């Protein structure tokens, strides 16, 4: 038979499937055999389309398994799968006949033990720390007394009650609660949204903007608290302009938001304590300050009064102040008349002393002395003058001696020699120039002679002239009879001499002229 | 002593200045006129602090959210 087509052969009774039949058969086998499996592996690529379903790969070193988490399951997961996470997935295997593929429908997926979860958290923490989100200098100072406190937490439950109670005890304030889910898949996005939402409120708007935020949640398992480890929550807290206190879980639980918050409270109650001071203490303090102030002022006034009294006691009486000066005045006025008399007496004595030595003889002696000094000076004046004239004259003579015509004559000679030389050079140059010109004229003349017709005459030619000048053609000679022939040695006039032979001779070239 | 009107001050600001005023008065190195002015300022600050402390009242409200998760309004909360 032909091998080209499938032809039923007698005895061959294997059933024949259609593709769908075999596909369905495989599906039954696989779903029957692997209706409930637990698979451990690393999460590969994760995609989250808008449908809400989650598609992901599970893989180990050698194989890859496609998986799907339906929307309803995904929203219940405490920890969302992330690429690189070591997980244990529970679910059922199924096939996808349309593409000849098999996959797992995941009903639950969890990190493979604490180790895997913590490793992932650690990685996230390091990344945020590297970005500087935990830096102490980023931390904002909490307001001393916030007017409005925003609390992000579950609206029901012990946490909000604890916070409100403690606030009431310490300092009742306005509190705004932003209700959020504090566990499960909705937790992280809602918390992040609430932080951003409080920040987005306008100051003075319809909803008052808090000046302090508290993000709070009671204790729970690490999975319960997991939402506060999500990156979006940490980033929202870091981006908050309003100072933020985190109070998540018990003191021993530390979540990612605690690192980013401006203050971390171990419990919700502690958060309320960080948020506000104690009102009664402050009232006491203010009272105390008032007391201190009054006391200080009174103290100041009392001290000044005391000092004033002390000083005024030390002030002397007015009468005593004048005693001394008065005594001085008395003493002085006692001594005044006597002092006056003695003063006049003393001057009188001195006058008589001076006037005693004043006599004419003293004056005339002085006069004689002065006259003598004048005479001596006059004599010295005359001699001094003539000596000075003599000295000047000598100096003039010396200078005149030094003055002689020789250098001037020498200079005149030099200059006239130079003049003569220059004149000589000038006439030489002129002569030379005129000689050169004469020679050139002679040379040109010689050239002219050689080029002129006279030299041709020397070689035996002649020039025939008619009435109108030189005749050079026969036709011209017939028109105007030749009148003159010029030879080298002179001109022959033809006029009267050759009238007879005029017709024959008029045409003759000068050469023929020699014949007669 | 700052020139800021006391009525505009927050509790914390008033408190800080009051503390400063008391300190200055207690040191006693201010002139008498000045210290009387300081005292008056301090009395004002004290009044401001007391007013702020007396204002303390509890008012708790929860934010109501619209369908898109944006704040829509306030709802008083009681009994917590």
TrEMBL record, chain A:
Keywords carried by this UniProt record: Cytoplasm, Exonuclease, Hydrolase, Nuclease
EC class name: hydrolase
Its EC number(s): 3.1.11.6
Catalytic activity: Exonucleolytic cleavage in either 5'- to 3'- or 3'- to 5'-direction to yield nucleoside 5'-phosphates
Subcellular compartments: Cytoplasm
Residues annotated as domain Exonuclease VII large subunit C-terminal: 133-358, 364-493
Single GO biological process annotation from the record: DNA catabolic process
PANTHER family cross-referenced by the UniProt entry: EXODEOXYRIBONUCLEASE 7 LARGE SUBUNIT (PTHR30008)
Summary of the function given for this chain in its UniProt record: Bidirectionally degrades single-stranded DNA into large acid-insoluble oligonucleotides, which are then degraded further into small acid-soluble oligonucleotides.
Subunit structure, interactors included: Heterooligomer composed of large and small subunits.
Protein family per UniProt: Belongs to the XseA family.
Protein name, entry field: Exodeoxyribonuclease 7 large subunit
Underlying gene: xseA
UniProtKB/TrEMBL annotation, chain B:
Compartment list: Cytoplasm
Species assigned in the record: Marimonas arenosa
Known partners and oligomeric status: Heterooligomer composed of large and small subunits.
Predominant localisation class: cytoplasm
CC annotations in GO: cytosol; exodeoxyribonuclease VII complex
Record-linked PANTHER family: EXODEOXYRIBONUCLEASE 7 SMALL SUBUNIT (PTHR34137)
Domain of life: Bacteria
Catalysis performed (reactions): Exonucleolytic cleavage in either 5'- to 3'- or 3'- to 5'-direction to yield nucleoside 5'-phosphates
GO MF annotations in UniProt: exodeoxyribonuclease VII activity
Coiled coil: 39-66
InterPro entries, alphabetized: Exonuc_VII_S (IPR003761), Exonuc_VII_ssu_sf (IPR037004)
EC number, UniProt record: 3.1.11.6
Family as reported in the entry's similarity comment: Belongs to the XseB family.
Keyword tags: Coiled coil, Cytoplasm, Exonuclease, Hydrolase, Nuclease
Protein name: Exodeoxyribonuclease 7 small subunit
Role according to the record: Bidirectionally degrades single-stranded DNA into large acid-insoluble oligonucleotides, which are then degraded further into small acid-soluble oligonucleotides.
Keyword Cytoplasm among record annotations: yes
One biological process term in Gene Ontology: DNA catabolic process
């Amino acid at each position: 038979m032909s091998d080209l087509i499938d032809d039923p052969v007698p005895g061959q009774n294997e059933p024949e499937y259609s593709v769908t039949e075999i596909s369905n058969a495989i599906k039954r086998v696989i779903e029957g055999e692997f209706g409930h499996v637990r698979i451990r592996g690393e999460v590969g690529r994760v995609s989250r389309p808008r449908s809400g379903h989650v598609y992901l790969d599970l893989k180990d070193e050698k194989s890859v398994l496609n998986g799907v988490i339906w929307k309803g399951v995904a929203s219940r997961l405490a920890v969302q799968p992330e690429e690189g996470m070591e997980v244990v997935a529970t679910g059922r295997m199924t096939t996808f006949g349309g593409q000849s593929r098999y996959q797992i429908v995941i009903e639950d997926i969890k990190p493979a033990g604490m180790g895997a979860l913590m490793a992932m958290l650690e990685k996230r923490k390091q990344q945020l720390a590297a970005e500087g989100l935990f830096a102490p200098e980023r931390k904002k100072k909490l307001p001393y007394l916030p007017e409005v406190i925003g609390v992000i937490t579950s609206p029901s439950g012990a946490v909000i009650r604890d916070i409100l109670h403690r606030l009431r005890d310490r300092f009742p304030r306005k509190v705004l609660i932003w209700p959020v889910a504090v566990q499960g898949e909705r937790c992280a996005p809602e918390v992040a949204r609430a932080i951003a939402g409080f920040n987005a409120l306008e100051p003075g708007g319809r909803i008052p903007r808090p000046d302090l935020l508290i993000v709070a949640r009671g204790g729970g398992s690490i999975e319960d608290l997991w939402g506060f480890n999500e990156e979006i929550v940490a980033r929202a807290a870091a981006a908050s302009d309003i100072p933020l206190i985190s109070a998540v879980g018990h003191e021993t639980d530390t979540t990612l938001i605690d690192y980013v918050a401006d203050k971390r409270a171990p419990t919700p109650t502690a958060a309320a304590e960080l948020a506000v001071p104690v009102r009664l203490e402050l009232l006491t303090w203010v009272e105390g300050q008032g007391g201190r102030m009054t006391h200080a002022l009174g103290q100041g006034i009392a001290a000044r009064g005391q000092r004033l009294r002390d000083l005024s006691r030390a002030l002397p009486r007015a009468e005593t102040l004048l005693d001394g000066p008065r005594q001085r005045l008395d003493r002085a006025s006692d001594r005044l008349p006597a002092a006056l008399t003695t003063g006049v007496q003393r001057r009188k004595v001195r006058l008589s002393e001076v006037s005693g030595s004043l006599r004419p003889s003293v004056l005339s002696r002085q006069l004689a002395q002065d006259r003598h000094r004048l005479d001596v000076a006059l004599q010295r004046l005359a001699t001094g003058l003539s000596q000075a004239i003599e000295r000047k004259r000598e100096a003039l003579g010396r200078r005149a001696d030094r003055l002689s015509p020789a250098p001037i004559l020498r200079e005149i000679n030099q200059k006239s020699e130079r003049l003569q030389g220059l004149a000589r050079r000038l006439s030489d140059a002129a002569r030379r120039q005129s000689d050169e010109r004469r020679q050139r004229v002679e040379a040109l003349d010689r050239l002219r002679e050689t080029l002129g017709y006279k030299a041709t005459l020397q070689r035996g030619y002649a020039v025939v002239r008619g009435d109108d000048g030189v005749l050079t053609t026969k036709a011209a000679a017939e028109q105007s009879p030749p009148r003159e022939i010029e030879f080298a040695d002179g001109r022959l006039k033809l006029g009267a001499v050759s009238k007879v032979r005029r017709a024959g001779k008029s045409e003759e070239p000068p050469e023929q002229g020699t014949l007669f | 002593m700052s020139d800021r009107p006391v009525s505009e001050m927050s509790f914390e600001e008033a408190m800080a200045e009051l503390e400063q005023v008391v300190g200055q008065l207690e040191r006693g190195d201010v002139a008498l006129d000045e210290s009387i002015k300081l005292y008056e300022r301090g009395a004002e600050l004290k009044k401001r602090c007391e007013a702020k402390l007396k204002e303390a009242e509890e008012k708790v409200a929860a934010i109501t959210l619209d369908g898109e998760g944006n704040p829509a309004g306030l709802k008083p909360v009681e009994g917590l």
